[in-house]
Amino acid sequence: MVQWKSLGVELEISAAKIKEIDNNNRGQVAECKHDMVQFWLESDSSSSWRKLIDALISNDQSVLAEEIKNTYCQIPQGEYATISDLKGAYCNLRPAEGDFPPVPTFSFTNLALIKDTTETKKSAFFYETIQGSVDDVIETKVTVTYEDLFRSMTSKNRILLLEGRPGCGKTTLTRKISRDWGEGTILSFVKYLFLIPLRQFYATPITGLSSILQYFDMSDLEVNIKGNAGERVCFIFDGLDEYSQKYAKQGRSWFEKLLRGEVLTSSMIMVTSRPNASVELRESAHIRGEVLGFLKEQIDEYIDKSYSNNLSKASEVKEYLHNHHNIQHMCYVPLHLVMIMFIYDSCQDQRAPLPKTETDVYNLFTVMSLVRYYTKIGKDIVLSDLQSIPSPESAIFLSISKVAYNTTAASKTSLSLHDINSEFSVSDVANLGFIVVDRKIGFTGGEPILSFVHLTNQEFLAAYYISTLTSDEQLKAIREHIDQSHMRVVLKFFCGITKLQNLDHWTAIIDNALIDEHGKKMVILNELHYVFESQNGQRCSELFSKAGGELIIKNETLSLLDYCVIGYCLESARDTVKNITLQCQLTAEGLCIIAQKLTRFVESVKELDIYDDLCDEDKVLALMELFQKFPNVESLK
Questions:
Q1: For the segment 245-274, what is each residue's pLDDT rounded down to a tens digit?
Q2: Which of 215, 188, 184, 179 is nearest to 199 (CA)?
Q3: What torsion do the CA atoms of 494, 497, 502, 503 make, to the nearest 10 degrees?
Q4: Are 448 and 426 in contact (CB under 8 A)?
C-alpha cells in the first residue's frame, strides 16, 4: 500500500495540508489518498502523469509507476523541443505493449474506411462488411483510404470525425497516421501533429491550448500557434467517448469551441469516437468517416504478417476460417482477429478442440484470461471451464458478470464504483482483466470510471450471469429482454452457453416469432442465430414445426454469418422445412456457403422462392448448385 503522506511530500504538498487532509478523513487511507491527489491536481498547474510517476519512484513504488507508465504514457509525451524529436517519437510507435491478447509488433495494417457522401453507390463492399444498426453509422458507404480523407480536408473542411464500434481499430488508425506523418509519407504540409488520447485527460480537463502543449512539454509554441490561428497544426483527439462528458459539456469550454471550429480556426482536427458519444459533433464535423475494421484481403494480410516465419501455419489458420464462416465473419473486427489467432495457437499447443461458434470463442478467451491472471500472481491453476474457478476469484467473477448484465440491460458502456459489489475493491475487479480502470483510484482526482475491455465481452459476461440464475429467473430474464434489440447478442450468448437444454426457455424465445399478414408464425433471422449458437439441432426442427415448415427471410442484408446460420439450420431441420423464401439481396459467395452446409439432399422442401434483381453469372452458378440440394421442389420461382 502506498504511504500517501510521503507521496504527498514528493508531490510538494505542504505538511500542514497533509495534516489537514488526514484530520478531515479521520485517517481513512483511501479517502486521504483521493483528497490528497485531488488537491494536487487542482493546485499544481504542472501536474502530469510524468510527475506522478517520478514521485512514485522516489517513494519506492517503481512497480506501480511502471504500470501507470505502460497504461497512460504509451503515446509520445514530454521533452519534444523540436519537430524532429516529435516526428522521431511517432516513428517509433508500435501497438501498445501489455495488451491481452498480445498484439503482433509488425507494422500497422490498413483498416477499411468509409466516407459520408450524398452519392448512392451499391457495391459488394456494402454487403460484405460488418452489418447491423450499431455499425452502420453512415448509411451510404464508399470505400476510401485515410489519405483520401485527409486530402479532402481544406481550410473550410478541416474537422474530420471518424466513428466506429468498439474494437474496430480507431486507436490503431490514429497511431498509424501519426507514425506515417513522422516518417514523412502523409500530411507533408502539417508542421505540428499532436496525438491526444482523451482518456489521459479524464482527471484534468483540457482548458486551453496550454493543456495540450504542456502534455508534450512544448509550451513555448503557444504564442506562435495562437498567432497563426493553428495554421499547419493537426490535432488528433482519440476517444471522445472516453473524455468526461462533464468536461465536454461544461458550458462553452475551450475544448468544445475547438471541436466546433470557433478557436484556432486554421488548424486541422480529427476526432475518433464510438457513435453513442459523437452525436452532437456530427453537426459541426465537415467530413465524416467510419472505421469498419478489416476486409477479407486485410484479414489474410494480417495473418500472413503474424506468421511470416511459418507460412504453413498461416495457411492452416486461413483454412480454419474458410471452413468456419461464422468465425471468419468475426475477424472483420481487428480485436476479434487477434483474439481468434491467439486462441488458435493455444488450442493447437494444448491439442484442444477449436471453437465452432462465437460463444466458444468468448468462453475460451475468458478462461485463458483467468489462467493468465493466475500465472501473473504465481499460481499454477488449470481451468477447464468457468464453473471451475476457485475462491475467491469465483465470487469476484460472478460479481463482474452481474455488473455486466446490469449495465448492458441499462444500455451503459461505462460504470462507476456504485455499480460494483461493495465487498470488492476496484483493484480486485480490475486485476482479473475484464474491466479497465480509466483512472487509478487514489492517484488521480475524483471517482474512477470503469469500462469492460470490449462491448462484446461485456455482453458475453452478461449472458454468463443469466446462465447462473435459477431456471425461473432465467425464464423471467428471457421474457424481459426478448424484444430489446440491445440485448440480442446477450440472448444469443445465453443460448450458446446453455445449449438451449431447457425447453421452456426455447419456447419463450420462439413464441416471440413474428406473425405474418395471414396470421401464420414466421421464422425470423434472430431465432436462427439463437439456435445456431446453441448447436442444438433438435431445436431447429421444433422451430420450423412451430412455423409450419416455412423459412421466410425478407428485406435483409445478409452477412456471411447469416448465410452460415441459414445453411446450418436447413441442414439440422431437413425433414421439417417445406417452403423457403429468400427475398433479399443475395451474393454468390453466400449462396455457396448455404450449399456447402447442406451435406445431404433436403427432400422435404417443395417450394423454393428466390427474389433477386442483381443476377450475374457467378450468382446464377451458385443458385444452380443450391437448387440441386432440393430434389423434390415442385414450385420454383
A1: 554 445 567 888 888 888 999 999 999 987
A2: 215
A3: 60
A4: yes
